[in-house]
Amino acid sequence: MAAPLLQAEIEIAAPVSKVWELVSDLNRMPQWSPQCRKMKPLGGPVRAGTKTINLNRRKFLFWPTTSLITEFIPEKKLAFRVNENGTVWSFELEPTETGTRLIESRHAENGVKPISNTIVNTLFGGVPSFEQELVDGMNQTLQRIKAAAESGA
Q1: How many domains does the chain have?
Q2: What is the pTM of this model?
Q3: What is the rounded CA–CA span in Å between residue 70 and residue 25?
Q4: Any transmembrane segments, and where (predicted)?
Q5: Domain span at residue 139?
């Protein structure tokens, strides 16, 4: 059984508006995430209900996914559900005295679809190590967003 919640957070010395600009540009997701190679929104401006086509990579393995933007609240929250495994990924932004707190989460309150767990157990070395890899990836993602926001990139 997969953990219901995986999460990482970071403090960024940049205004919420700047961090949101980076996080909400889904075409830039491969710059941030070590696993995402492509995230392409379909059908105009990104909003709740927008569908995406994604390509992920782990070492020599590549796999496509699709997702649906479930929440798009400017300068507050972006969330999307991955159709293949039922997990919901989100970025939440909170203003702080020195800038922005950015929290990345993977929610699996209803568990992860059994086929996904089978694939992870077969190809990715098991759910616990894969989930630790996901948390490590979240921390890398947040560090990359922080570096871009603080440098003005």
Answers
A1: 1
A2: 0.92
A3: 15
A4: none
A5: 5-151
